[in-house]
Amino acid sequence: MTTETQARGIATSMVAAARAVGWGVPKDGYNRAQNYRFASAAALKLRVGRALADAGVAVSTAAEILLVDEVPTSRGGTMQRIVVKMTLTFVDAASGEQMTAEGLGAGTDSTDKAVMKAATAAEKYAYIGALCLAMGEDPESDDEHGAPTSAAAPAVPAGRRAPAPSVAAKTAPARPQSSQSPQRAARTNGPAAPSD
């Protein structure tokens, strides 16, 4: 039986943090231009940060710009588009074990705000992926409330197995950063022993 004084390890600490956060973060923001509610990055970081601290997990971040280009506007001008990969490193204070999570974010703006939009989104989605948070909406839904409006997938007849998940849905093993796909929005790598 494990006691609270024993080293728990990063996986146990992350589970404790995820439980403390719950299954998502309330939507505290509203986008008037596109008429939708969202959970702000600030609200997510506040709630997740408290839960991680209570679980004894420290976090560091590292950002990498993957793309910088210009996109045309409908009025004949251009806007800067940036794609950022944010890597979060979670360290269990008791054991020293680590794990990483990555998130991608894109930002488009006519000023210097594009990189901040991209970095904020990337960090937000790295946290969501690392803690398996459901944010209260279905990104594949057809209505503004996140409710699925498409027909449900047909049931699998008795005695038959459901098809295996697609390769993209499976967790991939850790790979060197140079070969990582920028299409992956968030990926979590398993525990790693601390390096001396």
Describe the structure.
By secondary structure, the protein is an alpha+beta fold. The chain has three helices and six strands; from the N terminus they run αββαβββαβ. It has a domain at 10-138 and 184-188: Enolase-like, domain 1. The protein has helices spanning 10-21, 41-54, 113-131, and strands spanning 29-31, 36-38, 57-72, 78-92, 98-109, 186-188. The protein has a four-stranded antiparallel β-sheet. A two-stranded antiparallel ribbon has the order 1-2. Helix 1 (10-21) packs across helix 2 and helix 2 (41-54) crosses helix 3 (113-131). The model is unreliable at 148-196 (pLDDT under 50).
List key phrases describing it.
196 residues; alpha+beta; Enolase-like, domain 1; 4-stranded antiparallel sheet; two-stranded antiparallel sheet; 3 helices; disordered C terminus
* Spatial ordering of strands, largest sheet: 3-4-5-6
> First CA to last CA: what distance?
29 Å
CATH architecture of the domain at 10-138 and 184-188: 2-Layer Sandwich
| Rg for CA atoms | 19 Å
SSE order, as H and E?
Answer: HEEHEEEHE
* CATH level-3 fold name of the domain at 10-138 and 184-188: Enolase-like, domain 1
Average pLDDT, to the nearest integer?
A: 77
Alpha plus pi helix count? 3
Query: Major beta sheet, specifics?
Result: 4 strands, antiparallel
* CATH C-level label of the domain at 10-138 and 184-188: Alpha Beta
